[in-house]
Amino acid sequence: MAASAELRVDQLPADPLLHILSFLSFRDLINCSYVNRRMNELTKHNPLWKTLCSKHWLLTDADRVLSGTSWYCLFRQYYRDLGRYITYYPVLKRAWEQLKTFLQQRCPRMIASLKEGATELELNNIEAQINGSLPNDYRCSYRIHNGQKLVIPGLMGSMSLSNHYRSEVLLDIETAGGGFQQRKGMRHCLPLTFCFHTGLSQYMALESAEGRHKFESFYPCPDQTAQDPSAINMFITGSSFLDWFTTYIHNVVSGDFPIIRDQIFRYVHDKGCVATTDDITVSVSTSFLPELSSVHPPHFFFTYRVRIEMSSKASPEAACQLDSRYWKITTSDGNVEEVQGPGVVGEFPVMRPGKVHEYSSCTTFSTHSEYMEGHYTFHRLANKEEVFQVAIPRFHMVCPSYREPAGRTKTSSNYMSHLDDNGEEDCDGDSDSSAT
């Protein structure tokens, strides 16, 4: 600041603001009374302030008119309140606005569950309560929206199986603070989400401890084979709050996660995972379920959703019925299993032009990744003797990165289980949906 205070404004180039900004940080600009006084006189109406307000605070002309102040004063006002978050604010504010625009169109009831932003004082009080510091990206997001009310559906995604349902709520700061963990195996961990149905939470590590990295997010997974009952393995979901939250929102607003019955479902679809045979197209999306999985013993649970669609341009004579399925399943350790059986999840869908049939099934493996591929066998309704096969594209199922607690003695297990009597299980009962 000593060098900054010695600047002589009358010796600066034609646009003094550009020169001053090259020397000073934003904190200097706000705190240096000498520079503030001269900048007020010389640059109060410089158009660069409008650019800075748009870049860092996402403010518009309408915001400026509503404030009744200059762009310079508006920048200072926002900086006083949110200056510590200037690196994160535009990214998180834009993500929140994109999410709300999407929800208003596709899942409007979720909008009402969002809470107003927390204050600096409220965030400071939580830090005092847990005797720890919250990362600035987390604080910044909670200044914009303080999580959501404890309602269903949860903002952070849903998943359903025939006997299992989950929907994760983004916790408000007060509830998160109340769930702060200091027990062995989960020290310095703050919950980010909560599921009423499973009791499952995603956590953020506020310190590097017990095999975790500072500020990464994860699902805890008890180590059932360790001698220490408090040993926790972790399925990693993000390297920081910013990474975790913005990645999720991108998947939602880009359409990568499907909307089913006004809820966000965390199925991941590889855009290349589509196969068309004549008039029938098959595509597959997948999801990993951490609450039904474990690292020790190795038991990785996946669900997959299959969409079968007949082109609306197909001729009526192309109508057909599914008779059977064939799967070839390959695990990362090279094991191959073949599964054949009648129908899909106990059904034999009839396909006509424009018809869509969707179903979900699930599988477990003792390796961290696998891929499946195969075909369906159909017959024509007009001629049962005309039998043909429709390709199922290869799709991969890979569990998230996982980490073991520090100092654990590694064990191994080798087994594979497929969850159905003939290779599939009806998981959500929403098959034979209409085309949308």
Automatic annotation (TrEMBL):
Residues 274-404 form the ApaG domain. Pathway: Protein modification; protein ubiquitination. Residues 6-52 form the F-box domain. Residues 422-436 have a biased composition (Acidic residues). GO terms for cellular component: cytoplasm. PROSITE patterns: APAG, FBOX. Transmembrane segments: none annotated. Keywords: Ubl conjugation pathway. Residues 406-436 are annotated as: Disordered. The keyword Repeat does not apply. This is F-box protein 3.
